[in-house]
Amino acid sequence: MKKIKSIAIFGTRPEAIKMAPLVKELGNIENIENKVCVTAQHRQMLDQVLELFKIEPDFDLNIMKSKQTLTGITTRVLQGLENIFDEEKPNLVIVHGDTTTTFAGALAAFYKKIAVGHVEAGLRTYDKYFPFPEEMNRKLTGAIADLHFAPTTGSKNNLLKEGVPENKIFVTGNTVIDAMNFTVEKGYVFNNNELNQIDYDNRKIIMVTAHRRENWGRGIRNICNALKRIVQDNAEVEVIYLVHLNPIVKDVVYKILDHIPRIHLLPPLDTKETHNLMNKCYMVMTDSGGLQEEAPHLGKPVLVLRNVTERPEAVEAGTVKLAGTDEDNIVKLANELILDQDEYNVMSRAINPYGDGKASGRIAAAILQYFNIESGEYKEFQ
């Protein structure tokens, strides 16, 4: 029986969350021998996800360094993967999304003439510096990839405009929805006890994350000042801000928001805690790409704290709104959702365009189809 040898490569927490259900799926398929290589571009946060999903990597490049640069990450991934590819000789390398690990992994495979599968392919803002470096990472990965696993029809259309052959594009839904089937639990009790003391039933809890490089400086300051005004305007509101550990973000946030009543500043949570907090909260404000997909699955409106998004399907579906980083606009849109129940209901009940929890199975079927294995029965996500 023909067997495909594949290597799934990822290095950050967001990649790991979205690749974990696919790794599990591939491990159950007789015709695929999949191995896992982590770069550990983000060590601690990556390890949390590996533990949660009980994934033991076959290879660990362990590249993370203090004050690492994009150049350093890229070169260490390229060098680390060269020996692995020479030894393993895979038929397929699978990467996810838009991190530097993603681009370097695809490039390393290209140098060895190994086919590349790109999960979450086709997202675009068409501005190479927003987000930086993610927009160019995903475009360059797309130029290399042989199989494009697009989460939505919109992403597929982006790839078609760039000249990617239609028979190389597979619309699958987003694997992050698959991951939430593993993580969200009814009656969940948090490991962080401060979160257990909050009255989710009678208060309007806003979950916040904001840390993107494009928002460093003025953007983060505006977001923090807006949050302060929102809680001052609305006595029933509490904010839980999961503050990134990067001092460029953390120092600004604590300077403005520390000791403000009803604003809770907490370090980043692990994946399971984050998903269950999202499930209990009233709404989400974020500059994260992943949360734009995850929160609508749980019926939570999202205000995106960015001026552009590579996920326009969510805006079109009505599950998210672009708030940008203008302080007054953030306050205005947040107050609308807090005070206008009809406006809130429109967003919370909109259908999430990002998946049905079966994306991993579609990707596996597409891989089998691509390699002409009879059991592959890929059916496009609608």
Automatic annotation (TrEMBL):
Transmembrane segments: none annotated. It holds the Pfam family Epimerase_2. Its EC number is 5.1.3.14. The keyword Isomerase applies. InterPro entries: UDP_GlcNAc_Epimerase_2_dom, WecB-like. Residues 25-367 form the UDP-N-acetylglucosamine 2-epimerase domain. It comes from the Bacteria. SUPFAM superfamilies: UDP-Glycosyltransferase/glycogen phosphorylase (SSF53756). One of its GO terms (molecular function) is UDP-N-acetylglucosamine 2-epimerase activity. Keywords: Isomerase. Belongs to the UDP-N-acetylglucosamine 2-epimerase family. NCBIfam families: wecB. This is UDP-N-acetylglucosamine 2-epimerase (non-hydrolyzing). It comes from Clostridium aromativorans.
